[in-house]
Amino acid sequence: MSSRTLPLLFINLGGEMLYILDQRLRAQNIPADKAKKAPIPAWIEDDRRRVMNDIITTMFNKKFLEELFKPQELYSKKALRTVFDRLAHASIMRLNQASMDKLYDLMTMAFKYQVLLCTRPKDILLVSFNHMDAIKDFVKDSPSILSQVDETYRQLIEMYTPLSSGEFQLIRQTLLIFFQDMHIRVSIFLKDKVQNSNGRFVLPTSGPVPYGTQIPGLIRMFSCTGEEVSRLQFNNGGNYTSPLREGSFEIFGDRVTKLGTNMYSVSRPVETHMSGTSKNSAQHTKVSAVPNPLAKEELNLLARLMGGLEVQKPGNADNGFRVNLFATDEEEEEALISRPDELSYGVINIQATKDQHANAELAKIMGEFTESGDQSPSASSKGDDLLAMMDGL
Amino acid sequence: MYHKEKSIQIKNSASALYNNLGVLRIAPRRLTYFTVVHANVVNMVSASWDGLNYSHRQLQSKEPNVATSTSLIMQAAFCVLPSRDLLVVTSQKGIQMYESDGSIMVYWHALDTPETPTAQAVFARGISAVWENYICVGVSSGAILVFDVPSKGSNITLSEVVEEHKEPITDIASECSGSQECIADMVSADDGGNLCVWKSGEEFQLLNKIPGFDMSCSSVKLWKGTVAAGYGTGQIRLYEAVTGILHVEINAHARWIYSLDIAPFSGLLLSAAEDSLVRVWHLTLTPETNTVEVAHLHNECVTDTQICGAKFCDGDGYAFAVTGYDLSEIIRYTQT
C-alpha cells in the first residue's frame, strides 16, 4: 500500500525499544538490597549511556536511513524483527532470545496502541516526533549523534508534512495491516486499563475530538440559496469534548499528544503475558503458511539495509553484558520454553534462490558481523540469527 | 429500533480499509453472500436465511509475477447488473472479476505498476456497477476505468479511461433508486474530498464537479439524484448531484467515516466510523420544494472496535451488517 510507511514504523519501534532498554538498564543497575544505600557505581552508569549511544548511532546511520527513506513496501514482521535484532546487538549489550522476543512484543504492541489511539492519521507524525524528542534527550551530551538525529528530523519534516490527510490514512492503514491480529497482553496497559484482558485495546467514546472535527450531534439543513433553514440535535452516544490545539510539526514544539512519550519507569516494570494469547491467536492468518514468494526481494532489501548498518565490533564477548527483560534468569528460560508456536518470530524463510549476487552480498555483510565473534552467549539464538539462515543455503 | 443478531464468524479478521464489507442478497436461493477483505485475501461467506448453513471460501489476490511483492487488496464489492452479478476485487496489482459466488475468475486487468516502488502508491480502489452494462473501477492516479460487461461470458473489455480526478479515488457509487428519471448515473469521490457526477454511456459525460475541502471523502452514495458523502472529519454531507447544492451537513461522527450505505426503498442511511459507532438516519426528499430532510434514528456501538464496513442486507434496510478492524466476525442487526 503506502510506500512511505517504513521510516515511521522503524523510528517509532526504535523509540519504544530505547524506552524499554533504558528502563531495564536502570533497573539492572540497582542491586535490590542496596537500592537505598549505595550510589550507582560510575562504570555501570557509563555503560548504560554507552549502550544507548551505540544503538542510537546505529539507528541514525546515514547510509541506513537513506535506504530506509526510499519508497518501498513494508517489510514482513520477520524481516523487521531481524533488523531490530541487529540493532539491539549494535552495542556491548546482549539479549537472549526470550528477552529479545519480549522486547519486540512490547515494542510492537506499544506502537500498535499509539496508531490505534491517534485521533486522526496525521497525529502519527506527532507520535513519531515524541519518540524523536526523547531520543534527542538521550543523546543530548553527544554532539555528533545529535546532529544525526537533527538531520533525521529534517528528513521526516520534508517527507511527511506535505502529505494530505488521505495519504496519512493510507500510511495508517498499511501500519494496521502490519499489526493485524496482534493481541499480546502488556502489564502496563492492563494496569492502566487501556487494554482488555482479551488483548484488545480500549477505544473510548469520550474525550476530545480530533483537530479539524466537530463534536457529533448537529444536523444542519439548507435551502437552495444556501441559507440554513433548520438545525436538529441528536444524541451522539458518547461523551465528546472540543478538540485540543494542534501539536507542532516542527523540529521543536509542543506535540500536545502524550502518545509516543515514555510510559515506563524503574517502578513500572515491563511484562507481557503469553498464556491465553494462544486461544486468541487461533484466528491467525493462515496465508503466511503459503511459501513466501517475496523472500527473494526481502533478502535483497535486507542486504542493502544491512550494508548500511555499521555494527560496532564488540571486541570480545567478555566485555559484553547481558540484559534480561524478565525478573530472573529462570523466568527468562521458562518464557522461551513456553512461548506458543504461532507467536514465534522464527527465521526468515528463504526459498532456494539462484541469485548468486544476493547471496554473495549477504555473505559479505554477515562476514563483517562474525569477524569478531559476534555470538550471543545463549545457544538459543539460532532461531533469529541470519547466520543460521546462511548455513541453510 | 434494531437489535443484535447472531454474528457470522469469518476465517480472518477484517483489515482497516474503506467500505470493507460486500453484501449480495440472492432471494431465489434464500441466501446472502458477504465479503470481507483481510490483507491479500477476500473472505467470502454464503449464509442461508434460516441461519443453518454457512459456507466459506477464500480468494487470493492475483500476483502475475511471483518475484514481485505481495499484492494487498484494497476493496471487494458485488456488482449487480440486469443480466448477471459479478464480484470485483481491486488490489495493488490490478482488478479481478469473479462470478458472484467466487468460483471462477472471468477477467483480469493489470495496472501499470512501476519496476521500483514510487512515492505515490499504485492501486485500484472504488468499485461500482453502472447502468446496464458497465463496471467502473477507480485508480490511485485519479483515473476511472470503465469496463463494458457482456450479459454472459468473459469477453469483458476496457471501454474508456476517464481522467478527471487528480487524487486517488476512494469510492464510486451509482444511482440506486432504480428510477429511470435520474439524469446522473454515477458519482466518484477522491482523497481530496472532490466529487464528480457522471452520465454513463459510450462516452461518460461529466455533469458536475463538487470541490472538496482538502479532506478525504471515504464513502459515497447516490440516491434519487442526491449524493451522500462521508468524510475523514466525521461529517456527512448531502448534495444535489447535478447542481452541487449542499442540502444537509451532519456532524455525524467523532472520527474518520469508513462506510456509508443507503436502503433505496426506504431512504434509510447507514454510517459507520473509526469511533466505534454505526448510525442509522432517515432521508426525506421533497422534489416540489427541492429540499432534503434528515432525521437521526438509531445508534449502535461496537465496543472497542474501529468499524471498517457497514451495509444494509436488503433494500428496505430491515437488517444491516458490520465489520471492524481485527474482528473475525460479521456482526448483524435486525429491526425489532
UniProtKB/TrEMBL annotation, chain B:
Kindly list the GO CC terms recorded for this protein. Answer: centriole; ciliary basal body
One GO biological process term is: cilium assembly
Per UniProt, the keywords (alphabetical) are: Repeat, WD repeat
Which stretches make up the WD repeat-containing protein 54 beta-propeller domain? 1-334
Extent of the signal sequence: none
Q: Record's SMART domains?
A: WD40 (SM00320)
User: Does the keyword section mention ATP-binding?
Assistant: no
**Top-level taxon of the source organism:** Eukaryota
Q: Which InterPro entries match?
A: WD40/YVTN_repeat-like_dom_sf, WD40_repeat_dom_sf, WD40_rpt, WDR54_beta_prop, WDR55/POC1
Q: Where are the WD repeats?
A: 250-291
Q: What is this protein called?
A: WD repeat-containing protein 54 beta-propeller domain-containing protein
Question: What's the source species for this entry?
Answer: Sphaeramia orbicularis
This chain is encoded by the gene named wdr54
